[in-house]
Specification:
By secondary structure, the chain is an alpha+beta fold. The protein is about 30% helix and about 35% strand. The strands form three sheets. A five-stranded mixed barrel has the order 5-6-13-9-8, surrounded by four helices. Strands 1-2-3-4 form a four-stranded antiparallel sheet, covered by helices on one side. The protein has a three-stranded antiparallel sheet with strand order 10-12-11. Helix 2 packs across helix 7 and helix 4 crosses helix 6.
């Protein structure tokens, strides 16, 4: 990878190269015969993340849903259930605004989420729980356990105000638990869940500006760590807990 603040060249073995320029353009040079799904995976993931970083947005590794009180973000490492949780909110009538990349504009008086692409990536277990047939859904890439699910026409183009951020974290043998995070604790959690933080550092954009952004989020909206029992996934109970918390 070659990276500066306004030009990033990503080299993906067996897929090709992506040149991201000034937060406006992504040029794709795919290898001959490479599967289209693999090209799309990195285009809509790492390359798009680099473009959003170049635009000066705080890009979190998370999903987002719209509630009556504002947009709620679920952040955490891969495999912690962010997409599944967002899909369960979708199943209850909420609107999904972002999946995997959650771009937050921290300028101005209110934090705002920029709506993402109109699809989600879900595992077969999550698809089965929601009654979605996998035969008509594309795999994220050949051999992947995840499938790409269309959200139809997708979210509206206007940014939405951020209401809260939940940091997903498996715990020990305990029940579901919400622990408020404030100050440097909250800023650290947001830093840890910034999308491709290593890429941001390589671009020279992870210093004072990024710190100001995570602090702005930590000051303006509630942030809580959502801990669930290790090895036990109870998504319906998680949704119930969060709906109660958001109604208070």
């Amino acid at each position: 990878m070659d990276a500066t603040s306004d030009r990033v060249l990503l080299r993906i073995p067996s897929v090709g190269r992506y040149l991201v320029v000034e937060g406006r353009e992504i040029h794709v040079d795919a290898l001959p015969g490479v599967d289209e799904a693999a090209v799309r995976l990195y285009l809509l993931g790492t390359a798009l993340g680099a473009l959003l970083h170049q635009r000066g947005l705080l890009v979190l590794h998370g999903s987002a849903v719209e509630t009556a009180g504002g947009t709620v973000l679920f952040v955490g490492p891969s495999g912690h259930g962010k997409s599944t949780l967002a899909a369960l909110f979708l199943h209850r009538g909420y609107r999904v605004l972002a999946d995997d990349l959650a771009a937050v504009d921290t300028e101005g008086e209110r934090l705002k989420l920029l709506p993402g692409l109109p699809h989600m990536s879900l595992t077969p277990d999550s698809l089965a729980r929601l009654g979605i047939q996998t035969e008509a859904i594309l795999q994220v890439q050949p051999g992947s356990q995840k499938h790409r699910v269309s959200l139809g026409t997708g979210p509206a183009g206007a940014p939405t105000p951020v209401r809260a951020v939940y940091v997903l974290s498996p715990g020990e043998d305990c029940g579901l638990r919400l622990t408020p995070l404030t100050g440097l604790q909250a800023a650290r959690a947001l830093t840890d869940n910034t999308y491709r933080l290593g890429l941001l550092k390589a671009m020279g954009l992870s210093g004072a500006r990024h710190f100001r952004q995570v602090c702005a989020v930590a000051r303006r909206v509630p942030i809580a760590r959502l801990t669930r029992p290790s090895g036990r996934w109870e998504p319906e109970a998680l949704v119930d807990l969060l709906e109660r918390d958001l109604s208070e």
